[in-house]
Fold:
Amino acid sequence: MARNRNRPRAGEQHEVTIRDLAYGGKGVARLGSEEAPGMTVFVGSTAPGDEVRITLDRVKRRHAEAHVSELITAGPDRIEPSCTHYSEGCGGCSWQHLGYDTQLSAKEKVVRESLERIGEFADVAVSPIVAADEPWFYRNKMEFSFHARDGLGLHAGGDWRRVIPITECRLESELAMRIIEYARNFAQREGLAGWDPATNQGFLREIMIRHGRATGQTMVGLITERGAFAGAPEFAAGVAALDDSIVSVVRGIRGAFEEGSPIDRIETLYGSASIVEEVAGLRFNIGLQTFFQTSTAQAERMLAIVREEVQGVGSGNIERILDVFCGVGFFTLGLADLASEAIGVEIVEPSIIAARENASTNGIDNTSTPAMLAARCPSCSSAMAPRMSRSSIRREAVPAARSCGASLALPRSDSCMSRATRRR
Structure:
């Protein structure tokens, strides 16, 4: 079969105008001209209206991917990034070159198009996104990676083999940067090798920093390979001395090669094994491996919106609320007083444990029985699979919850079921 000589090839350069933003944040353009538009191309770090010279990186059957070689004319929505590391390719942020209002509009459009195209819903009414009062320094959790060659920082955008050493971050706190600087110096002084993804060797893997924004508590988690860590007491003492808010320093030991894989064991080096966050009058224990909404302020707003929607649907007579992937029970507990029972489903064991503790801490109970119960379906002694598609939840999980009322079940897995009932 003859090859199409006019088909674009990787390495070619083209001048294009960015027309829109796609899911994931890349700009959308068309090769060719207005009169004869060609292949769609997705270009990172661009804004609508940008006129750019691009270099094609990958050419697929129906689209191409490219990077900017030269910004010819900036579009009206482009702004100057405020972080010095953004231009170095840091992957911590994707849209610093866009104004916040533009980001909100683009995300709203992505939600609408996803519901219509992927969910096959017609004429979806999508409410405007509720903007954050403070779009900077809002995160209550971030992870920073050690690298054998690059040191300690954040991964480069789209390249997990490379790390950008950082000295500032517009997402995290000033305290986090002091913790990073201390850890970087400690590793160099002690001769501790960072992780090399090419050889799967090295001792230091990551640092996770969590803040209780409402409580003022901070956790520092150092993720390492297996093996002795003689310097652990010195590391913990040095970290704790950085600020009185640091009430927890823990070591997570991971034997698997893959970054982000489960932690095998946790050692408490200083203080407690968890911190507490408070949202909407509820207190949540949060550990090294538990999930929690990364913006405390927006989490409280989100809970208020969900409560309003639930109240509107149920008209005060709701039998059961199902919270799928409930984490530490944020929505399960936050909605428990609106129904006879609220069921939370989770696959991560530390989150299940924390959810039970949080139910007890907040006085959410069913007479003398703890409100968050790890349960097995009485008919099949099973629970939810680690990864569930939207269709499998609808096809298998929800009918199972309706049928037994005790757990949300799928075949052959350990139980991951939690329950909460109305506050008494």
User: Anything to note?
Assistant: Residues 296-314 form the longest helix (19 residues). The mean pLDDT is 84. DSSP finds seven helices and 20 strands in the chain.
